[in-house]
Amino acid sequence: MARGVHNGRSYGAFLFDMDGTILSSIAAAERVWAAWARKFDLDVETFLPTIHGVRARETISGLGIPGIDLEAEIEALTLAEMDDVEGIEAIAGAAELLVSLPPKRWAIVTSAPRALAARRLEAAGIPFPPLMVAGEDVENGKPAPDCFLLAARTLGQRPEDCLVFEDAIAGIQAADAAGMSVAVITATHRHRLDTWHPTVAGYDSLVATCDERGHLVISEAAGARIAELGV
Known about the structure:
33% of the residues lie in helices and 16% in strands.
């Protein structure tokens, strides 16, 4: 772990990105998007790094492809991604950490459509969360802060009292713009990410507890078993 994940600081809520943060879906997503890119004669190797952490809407719109039916392409991509869940699995320790958290104190905040998110969570063996903010729930996707601000507001928490777990640049930028703390999960990273935020490979060595005020605390406890929280 680099520089510790805000060890000892307390929070009102934890907000988790999904793809690349609590589960690994890179191979499946890139299979689908590579096929889509070839249909439009895009350079697949250059294109694929741009799809992670943002909604399909922003990805496709940013390409400026003339005459494209944006809604039809989004729908087709979503259906293709829902059909391809081979190799999707939970990040080490993620499921155990999530089920230990108080239900009204955490959320999944994803750029994926809700139906696709549910499909991938099921494939990874992660229970559906008590609160999910999905791609269709906000007008502006990451790197805009809308999704994280909506999650905090729904949970009744101030943005500055939230800790965001993210893996992608767009998500980190969204959390920064929302005024939230960030922990970067690097389990699926192929290259070193240049960030001043604390980083951690996975959740195996993290333990979540409640302090005397009932606030959440995340800390490193190598080999520790994550305790069930009772608030």
